[in-house]
Amino acid sequence: MLASFITALVLAALPSAQIVAEQPISFTGVVQAVDFGPGIICAPPTHEIECAGGTFFLTSTTINLNFYIGKNVKLTGTNIGAGCPTWDVSAVEDPPPTSLIFCGSPTPSCPIRLRSVPGGISQHFLLLGFSPGLTPKNLYSGSLLLGDPWFVLASTSGAVGLEGAAFDFQLPGDAALAGLSVWFQAVRRDVGPVGPFRFSNAVCITLTGPSPPCIDPLGC
Question: 79 has which bridge partners?
């Protein structure tokens, strides 16, 4: 019952309509450059966000996106629909209102931590998916960056301060899981008073095989 309630709560932050061309949307992520070779039939995009997995790309006629490479930022853009799902970025918010941080080793049997920030009197949800995607909500809240199906993995409250909310897990010890890729995203809202949902960047990991001792994630 609790899991169903949490899922319904987060679903309330999602749209009921498809993406409409020429409508600006926003999303959060770490900007990185892309290098397309010959044979790509689209207006050449120059950038993407980390963990987008080729589902959409970025360009800008007004902003030098190279300045934001390696930074986690909130971007606002419009779909230019030129052969590839490419968004023309018109605004950048640095730092973004909500971020998700990963610490630990993506190795079976190792502990990991995902931290949703900032803290404050807040409520945090951790989402899990197995592919990237793009489902916009609105310019204020941002976008869901997980493909279907996705799940609410956990929820918790944030403390007063900037430390945010930590989600700690022990990865399964099954070596057969090596090579499995998973995507995480946080959804945060203030609860003093209750505010709207804000979507974080996506974090993606691919489970590796046996490795040297696990990295301690507790300093994250």
Answer: 87
pTM of the model: 0.86
- Ranked by mean pLDDT, the top range of 101-105, 163-167, 170-174 is 101-105
Domain closes at, from 93, 110, 145: 93
Structure tokens at 61: 């006629």
Domain boundary among 69, 93, 117: 93
Q: Are residues 81 and 108 in the same domain?
A: no
Q: Are residues 112 and 199 in the same domain?
A: yes
Query: 116 in a domain, yes or no?
Result: yes
CB 200 within 8 A of CB 96: yes
pLDDT computed for residue 54 by the predictor: 87
Mean pLDDT of the chain: 85
Spatial neighbors of 149 by CB under 8 A, at least 6 apart, are: 129, 130
Distance CA 27, CA 201 (A): 8
Question: Could you give phi then psi for residue 175, rounded to 5 degrees?
Answer: -65, -20
What DSSP string runs through 106-118? -STT-EEEEEEE-
Contact 203, 183 (CB under 8 A): yes
**Which of 73, 164, 167 lies closest to 126 in space, CA to CA?**
167
- DSSP string for 154-180: EEEEEPSSSS-EEEEEE----GGGTT-
CA–CA separation, 71 and 53 (whole Å)? 17
- pLDDT tier for residue 41 given thresholds of 50, 70 and 90: low
